[in-house]
Amino acid sequence: MIYRIRHLTEYEYQSPVSLCYNLAHLQPRNTSYQSCVSSKLHIDPLPSYSRKRKDYFGNNTLHFSIEVPHKKLSIEVISEVRIDEARASPELNLDLGNTCAQALEALSAGQGKNTLAAREFVLDSPMVRTIDELREYAEPSFAPDRPLLSAARELTQRIFTDFTYDPEFTTVATPLSDVLEHRRGVCQDFAHLAIGCLRALGFPARYVSGYLETLPPPGQEKLVGSDASHAWFSVYSPGEGWFEFDPTNNNMPAHQHITTAWGRDYSDVTPLGGIIFDGGKSQPPRVAVDVDRIKER
């Protein structure tokens, strides 16, 4: 299956921006079941400097600067991604595998490359600080003799049930403690919440950003630009690998989830960030996303 993803971000400024430096995470990465067939980027005004590279986590990044005065900035990325449906949706028995106690013991004693690399995802990160309240919320699901993946699946379901999706309640800067107290937020918040719960118990967890194919109600056409960026999380089980869960939709990501990047939290994989000089009072960008299936060539 091939998806075409169009991600358009437009800024308008009150007064001309004289100079801006930017970092983008907009090109989907390759994974065990996903390959980026092509990715075309258009920036207006044209950058004075641009450079693609892999970041610390292996994500595709673009650094660019615009060094001419401008009152508008447009960044459009059109990517085609091939998904291996069988590998994206494997048959998993969540009642097998490492128990929570076994996973913690293996994390402590293990010297394998993957386990050593996963340990850094137990540490606090800029937007996810482990607090007692997170551990207390998570503990009922993580009995020592329970399979880790079964416990993570239950945590996913509890967040879906206990929290209300409310795009008006949080911003990028809303503390995780506020999300936990008021039981409201969006996909970014719910991913951070699950990650904080897992780390508070000693399990490695990382933030995954990407896209989710959405389908219109039966008999209705899909609105252009109606899709959005999405976020979920993954947890590491020693000797078994990373496993993804989506608390916003109460499922395990499969072929309808397209991965862009992963890191410790949102701050590592912000779709577009940077610094501008001048421009007047900041204005929120206009973002339009389309995720469409296309025929295999």
Automatic annotation (TrEMBL):
<dbReference type="InterPro" id="IPR013589">
    <property type="entry name" value="Bac_transglu_N"/>
</dbReference>
<dbReference type="InterPro" id="IPR002931">
    <property type="entry name" value="Transglutaminase-like"/>
</dbReference>
<dbReference type="InterPro" id="IPR038765">
    <property type="entry name" value="Papain-like_cys_pep_sf"/>
</dbReference>
<dbReference type="Pfam" id="PF01841">
    <property type="entry name" value="Transglut_core"/>
</dbReference>
<protein>
    <submittedName>
        <fullName>Transglutaminase</fullName>
    </submittedName>
</protein>
<dbReference type="Pfam" id="PF08379">
    <property type="entry name" value="Bact_transglu_N"/>
</dbReference>
<feature type="domain" description="Transglutaminase-like">
    <location>
        <begin position="179"/>
        <end position="249"/>
    </location>
</feature>
